[in-house]
C-alpha cells in the first residue's frame, strides 16, 4: 500500500483501490489532495497491472466536497477567485471522467458538492445504505462548479437534477437508487466486498473493449446516429483486431471461458 498525506492506494489482482484519507475533515478536497489524486490517476492509467480503479473514503463520509477551511483562508487574503481550487478540481474531474479504464465509486457515507461530483465522473456508483447525497451549492449561494450541472441531467433527467440542485435536498441511498444516481445499494458492512466483487468482474473482462465503449459513450452525444454508427464501426474493427478479440473467438471455438489481457 502506498500513502500520501491525504490518500491511501494499493493494487490487488488488477484492481487499484484509492481511499480518500482525511477523516477529520470528512475527506474534504483541498488542493494537495486534488493534485495527488490526479497524479495517482495518471499513474494508474498507464500501469498495465491496473485494469479497474475503485474510489472510496475513510470514515463516515465519502467526501464533504471542497475544503471550506482552505476556502476561508483564501477569502481572508483576498484570493478566493484566484487561489486555484476550481481549476485544479476541473482538471481532476476531466481526468477521472476521461480515463480509459473502468472506474467504480464505492460511496461509504455523505457525498456533498464536489464530493458528489467526484462520484458522477465514475462509470459505476455503489452506495452503502448510510450514504447520502447533497449538491451543497445553492445553500452557499453558489451554482455548481465541479460538473454537477453536466452530469446530473444526463444521469437522472433535467427535472430531478433541478430539484436536487435548486432545493439542495439530502438524498438517501435508496432515493439515489430510485432516481438512477447509483446502480446498487448494499449494507454498510458489505460495501467494500460488493465493490470488490464487481471490480474483479470488470478486471477479468475485455478492458480494451471497455475503453472503446467508454469513448463511444462520451462522444456519442455530440454525433448524429449515422455518425455514431460510423464511430461504432471503427471501434468494432479495433476490437476485432485486438488480442482480446482473437481470444474471445478462440474461447468460443474451444468451448471455454476467455482469458482477457486488455490488449
TrEMBL record:
Which is an annotated GO molecular function term of this record?
lyase activity
Q: Which UniProt key words apply to this protein? A: Lyase
Q: Where is the signal peptide?
A: none
Give the source's domain of life in one word. Answer: Bacteria
Where are the membrane-spanning stretches? none
| One GO-annotated biological process of the protein | fatty acid beta-oxidation
Q: Write out the similarity annotation.
A: Belongs to the enoyl-CoA hydratase/isomerase family.
Q: What is this protein called?
A: Enoyl-CoA hydratase
Q: What is the lineage of its organism?
A: Bacteria, Pseudomonadati, Pseudomonadota, Gammaproteobacteria, Pseudomonadales
Amino acid at each position: 500500500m502506498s500513502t500520501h498525506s491525504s490518500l491511501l492506494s494499493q493494487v490487488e489482482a488488477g484492481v487499484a483501490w484509492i481511499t480518500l484519507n482525511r477523516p477529520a475533515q470528512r475527506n474534504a478536497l483541498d488542493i494537495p489532495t486534488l493534485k495527488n489524486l490526479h497524479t495517482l490517476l495518471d499513474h494508474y492509467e498507464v500501469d498495465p497491472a491496473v485494469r479497474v480503479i475503485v474510489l472510496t473514503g475513510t470514515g463516515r463520509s465519502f467526501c464533504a466536497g471542497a475544503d471550506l477551511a482552505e476556502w476561508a483562508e483564501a477569502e481572508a487574503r483576498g484570493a478566493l477567485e484566484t487561489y486555484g481550487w476550481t481549476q485544479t478540481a476541473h482538471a481532476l474531474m476531466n481526468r477521472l471522467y476521461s480515463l480509459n479504464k473502468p472506474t467504480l465509486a464505492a460511496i461509504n457515507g455523505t457525498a456533498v458538492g464536489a464530493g458528489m461530483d467526484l462520484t458522477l465522473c465514475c462509470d459505476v456508483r455503489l452506495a452503502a445504505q448510510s450514504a447520502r447525497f447533497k449538491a451543497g451549492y445553492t445553500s452557499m449561494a453558489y451554482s455548481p462548479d465541479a460538473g454537477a450541472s453536466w452530469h446530473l441531467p444526463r444521469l437522472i433527467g433535467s427535472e430531478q437534477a433541478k430539484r436536487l440542485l435548486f432545493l439542495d435536498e439530502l438524498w438517501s441511498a435508496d432515493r439515489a437508487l430510485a432516481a438512477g444516481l447509483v446502480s446498487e445499494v448494499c449494507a454498510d458492512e458489505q460495501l467494500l466486498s460488493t465493490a470488490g466483487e464487481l471490480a474483479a468482474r470488470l478486471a477479468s473482462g475485455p478492458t480494451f473493449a471497455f475503453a472503446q465503449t467508454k469513448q463511444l459513450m462520451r462522444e456519442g452525444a455530440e454525433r448524429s446516429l449515422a455518425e455514431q454508427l460510423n464511430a461504432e464501426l471503427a471501434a468494432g474493427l479495433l476490437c476485432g483486431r485486438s488480442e482480446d478479440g482473437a481470444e474471445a473467438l478462440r474461447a468460443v471455438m474451444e468451448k471455454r471461458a476467455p482469458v482477457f489481457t486488455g490488449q
